[in-house]
Amino acid sequence: MNCSPKYLVAIPRARGSETGFVNFGEGTLAQTVKVKAFAAHNLRVPHTPPLEVDLVAKFYDPLYWAFHEVLPGNDPFLLLDCNYAHEVEAYERMQPISGTAVPRFYGSYTTHVAVPRTNLTRPVRLVLMELIPGKTLGKLDPADFSIRQRQAIVGSLIDQIYLVNRLDVIHEEFYPRNVILKSVDFEGKHADIRLIDFGKSWVGHLEPHGDLEKLRNLDFQQFMYENWHKDCHVHPVEDFETSGWARDWDCEWNEWLYNRYVGASRNTRPSSQDSSMPYTLGGGMEQAVSDFSRT
Questions:
Q1: Which end of the chain, N or C, is surrounded by fewer C-beta atoms within 10 Å?
Q2: Percent of the chain at pLDDT above 90?
Q3: How far is it, in rounded angstroms, from Cα 10 to Cα 4?
C-alpha cells in the first residue's frame, strides 16, 4: 500500500464537515476519507486491500482532536490511541461477520504526514476498510420509509448487534449516525445495513466473567425478546425512537418484538438460509445463528 505523503496528507484545519462517507476537519475524533490503495506488498492483514478501488481510511490524528470534549487532566493523545486500539481489536474479533454486519476490515497502519514548512513528518495511525455505498441513518429521513421498511431496518440492527456481542464486542455508541443503510426492499422484508465506529467499544469484557459463554448458550429467540424488551433491553432504542426509526409503527415495540422473535420461531422454522443474506426478518436469523455457532 502506498502511504507516502503524496497520497496521505494533512488536511487543513477547518470546521468539521460530513459529506457522505467523508468526515474531516477540526473537532472530529477521527478523519474519515475516501482513498485508493496503489500497492500492497507483504501485508499481514486478514484481507489484502483491493487495488485501485475506493476504500475508507480512518485517521486517528491528534491534530484534529475535539479538544472541547477532553476533560481536564485527560491526555488527548492517549485517548485517541485508545480509540484506535479499540477499533482495531473490535474489527479483528469481528472477522467472522466482516463484510456482512460490519465493513470488511483491511488492517491497521501508520503513515507519515508531512509537517508544513519543514522537512519533518509525523506518524499518524489509520485503519483501512471497505467503502459501503449508502448513507447513515442519521442522514436519512425516516418519513421517506414505510412502517415495514423501518421495522426491517431496526430488526436487522438488533440482529447484527447480537452477532457482534457473541464475538465479545459491545458497541458503546449505538446511534443512527453509526448505522449505514445499503438497501431495504420495497416490501420491508429485508434490510442490508452495516454497523460502524467501534472506537469506544468494549472488547473482551464478557469472557473473563463467564458472560460470553452464557450468551452463546442462550436460546436466541427468547434472549432477543427478553433483552430488547422495552423495560430491560441491553442496548437502548431511545435514539432510534426519538429520531423516528422505531416510532409511529402499527404496533407497540414489545408486541413487534414478540411477533418477530418468539412468535416467528414457533410458527416458522426454516430448514435452510441463503448464506449471502443471513439477516432476514423473523425466524430467518435462527439459521444464521446456528451457522455462526459452528464457527
A1: C
A2: 36
A3: 12
